[in-house]
Specification:
The protein has about 425 residues and is an alpha+beta fold. It folds into two domains: about 220 residues, no CATH class; about 150 residues, no CATH class. The chain is built from 16 helices and eleven strands. Strands 1, 2, 3, 4, 5, 10 and 11 form a seven-stranded antiparallel beta sheet that branches. Strand 7 and strand 8 form a beta hairpin. Helix 4 packs across helix 12. The radius of gyration is 23 Å and the shape is globular.
Length: about 425
């Protein structure tokens, strides 16, 4: 007997509140949702809570989902959105040790290629169009053959093969732009082997029980997550409708002047209100033998008796992290926060603390950063950076065996937690810095 597909199970659940149908859906997709959440937040307890919240939303929306939706794609996007909401509201002052946790929990030993790919994988996939993203999820996350991928996408097997190959090429270009040398064959193999891992044994049962009750027995923190995620999902729909409407208006006119007005006359203050800033700090003890390499990596603004200040672009930052990983540097903490421009915020892990304010310029991509970082000593900086650049603060040379460096990386996000602009669409020249 043929197994019912996802939409048949959803219909059965929506019509008859069938626990059996919903349990099959959970069992089928829980590893995908859990793995996506775990990569995003790096915390197993949080990943379980996010997984539960995703399936509660699925239960609530079961009777309204279109049959044209690829469920694995919908669940993946919802898990990503939920994880972004979690980072905004729950772990702003907690250390994230994603790579170390993933290495300890994977069933198979990690390859060097996967260790480089994993931290950027979901960002890379989020840049794909919906059909390309669904093709990648179906083929490599769910291990479906090309015939099954085509059926899910409403296309032939040959068309599915072409779409999967094009999506792989786009991922390959993304990783290449970020300094990770690979091939499409290696990417396909690594994503297939490592992207989805088994969720905890009892999670499917508990998720099913809570989700079919539409969250009635969920914890307060889970309900808060759901409430925030539903608001963002609603905003995303409104934003999409506005953009579609704008496109129709432009198509019905000459377009040039209308586009210029839309692009250049949008009030800067409104842009700032709906933009968020993701900041991650790295506190690293660097061997004195590598300290000069850090200073040579970016544009040094000042080197004083107090501390040095420099700006790094995304590629240089990734190169430095790889250098630190191979040359015996010691990571003291890696706190992160998502906040609004103009707000003073702090990140604290034990005795490590960063106080900072990020002010967004009217152009929508330049940030003025004020930073006071305290660990074994206090370092300060005030500088202008482009979106996605890093400020590096270094302690002065004292004749010791190592030096403290604090690196703060920023990324501008939309309300759904996605980067506002891609690497290929930067409005400034990569490798340059703003006027100071």
């Amino acid at each position: 007997m043929t197994e019912p597909d996802d939409h048949q199970l959803l219909t059965e659940f929506a019509r008859n509140n069938s626990e059996t149908a919903f349990a099959k859906l959970v069992q089928r997709h829980i590893n995908l949702v859990y793995s996506t959440a775990l990569r995003s937040v790096g915390n197993s307890h949080a990943a379980e809570e996010i997984t539960q919240a995703v399936f509660i939303i699925l239960a609530r929306k079961a009777d309204g989902l279109s049959r044209n939706i690829v469920l694995s794609g919908w669940l993946y996007q919802t898990a990503r959105l939920m994880a972004a909401n979690y980072l905004r509201t729950e772990i702003r002052r907690q250390q994230r040790e994603q790579e170390a946790y993933m290495q300890s929990t994977l069933n198979e030993p990690e390859s060097e290629a996967w260790r480089q790919i994993a931290p950027l994988l979901d960002d890379a996939i989020s840049r794909l169009g919906e059909k390309d993203r669904n093709a990648v999820l179906l083929r490599f996350f769910e291990s479906k053959n090309l015939s099954e991928v085509g059926a899910a996408l409403g296309a032939s097997e040959d068309a599915a093969k072409m779409r999967v190959n094009r999506a792989l090429e786009k991922l390959h270009r993304f990783f290449n732009e970020h300094g990770i040398s690979s091939t499409t064959a290696i990417l396909a193999g690594e994503i297939s082997a490592h992207s989805v891992q088994a969720a905890p044994a009892m999670l499917a049962k508990s998720v099913t029980a809570v989700a079919i009750a539409k969250g009635a027995a969920a914890s307060a923190s889970t309900l808060t997550l759901i409430k925030g995620a539903l608001k963002v999902m609603a905003w995303t729909k409104v934003k999409t409708a506005i953009l579609v409407g704008a496109a129709v208006i432009l198509a019905a006119t000459t377009g040039t002047m209308a586009m210029k007005a839309f692009k250049y006359h949008q009030p800067a203050r409104k842009l700032e209100m709906r933009t968020e800033v993701h900041m991650k700090a790295y506190f690293i003890e660097v061997p004195e033998s590598d300290a000069q390499a850090v200073l040579n990596a970016g544009t040094v603004l000042t080197t004083t008796n107090q501390n040095s200040v420099e700006i790094l672009d995304d590629d240089k930052m990734l190169q430095l992290l790889r250098l630190f990983g191979s040359n015996g540097a010691t990571s003291l903490a890696e706190p992160e926060v998502i906040t609004m421009p103009g707000r003073q915020t702090s990140m604290r892990v034990g005795d490590v603390n960063v106080d900072l304010i990020s002010t967004l310029f009217d152009d929508g991509f330049t940030l003025k950063m004020k930073i006071i970082a305290s660990a074994t000593e206090t370092l300060t900086a005030e500088a202008n950076i482009w979106d996605s650049q890093t400020i590096a603060l270094g302690s002065p040379k004292t004749g010791g065996q190592s030096r403290l460096f604090v690196l703060v990386t920023t990324r501008l996000l939309d309300p759904a937690g996605n980067p506002i602009r891609s690497t290929a669409g930067l409005p400034f020249k990569p490798g340059t810095i703003p006027p100071q």
